[in-house]
Amino acid sequence: MNNNIVIVLTACVNPNGMSYTMLQDPDVRKLQYIESLHFYLNKTLLPIVFVENSNTDFSDDFKTWIDKGRLEYITFDGNSQFDKIKGKGYGEAVMLLYAIEHSVMIHNCKYIIKVTGRLQVQNINKIANSCCLFLDNVWRSNIERNSVATTVFISSPRMLRLLLERHKEEITEEQRGFFWIENVLAKALVSDKDIKLTLMPFTYPPLFDALSGTSQSKYIIKETEINTTDNLFYGSELLKLRGDKHYIIMKFCYYITIFIRKIHACLK
Question: 75 pairs with which residues across the strands?
């Protein structure tokens, strides 16, 4: 078992009226979390931390895995401790900070792969085996204009803790703009230059097929829809804003990718 990397599944069985969360049924959500847990336990060899913030405990269903030391189940009453208008992104930040503070597995690992708990990432092993994770303080995620994806991302626990502790109170879904967790984290990755990090956007997407809790639309990403160019372009822009000269290398990779795709299109 690779104890340097831990999968962290975030969960909220009972949203209890959380804003921008269409799927509110606790029974349906619980079943989806159970299915996801079984998926990761059976499809990977990685340690798993399941952190749930509505004080819902179904750990007895996974007692064998917990006793083997493969699964750490953490639940606490976090969802009722803040104004719901701040949204699930704020709740996610609270949950991740709680997990970092209380999890033995996270305390002893180098990297976490954070996954929104109801999603089953089909290529999770490929993501976990990324060759760049021998470096320190790598951040990996899909990157868009002014935002970084939080459904699936890789971070060191220390770096994530610092970013969230400093910027958690900026997160709110009360107003549109740059206040959602995806935007706040992107801004923090630019502004917090005292945190030494290596930005490595995904050059292949996390592949999953699940319902979004926000819109109830399908998360479906296929290999043919890989948007490597966007990741490289916006990743280079983020590095440039941060003042990291490595943005030149990433921008060069962006142009090379565009060139290869054009050649490939001409040969068809």
Answer: 52
Structure tokens that stand for 72 in this block: 């750490």
- What number of helices (H) and strands (E) belong to the chain? 9, 11
209 in Cβ contact with 118 (< 8 Å): no
SS3 176: coil
Q: 40 forms bridges with which residues in the sheet?
A: none
Strand partners, 5: 111
Nearest CA among 55, 68, 61 for reference residue 34: 61
Q: What is the largest CA-CA distance in the chain?
A: 58
Strands 152-155 and 111-116: antiparallel
Is the Cβ–Cβ distance between 153 and 121 less than 8 Å? Answer: no
Q: Which of 237, 149, 163 is nearest to 195 (CA)?
A: 163
Q: Are 199 and 183 in contact (CB under 8 A)?
A: no
Residue 80 CB partners (closer than 8 Å, separation 6+): 16, 54
Torsion over CA: 13, 19, 21, 25 (sign): positive
Tokens 């890789």, located at residue: 154
Phi, psi angle pair for 117, to nearest 5°: -60, -25
Reported as a pLDDT band with limits 50, 70 and 90, residue 227 is confident
The pTM of the full predicted model, rounded to 2 decimals, is 0.89
| 228-242 vs 181-191: helix crossing angle, rounded to 10 | 50
Q: Which of these, 25, 22, 71, lies nearest to 51 by C-alpha position?
A: 71
pLDDT digits 0-9 by tens, 113-128: 999 999 999 999 999 9
Per residue in 231-240, pLDDT (tens digit) is 999 999 999 9
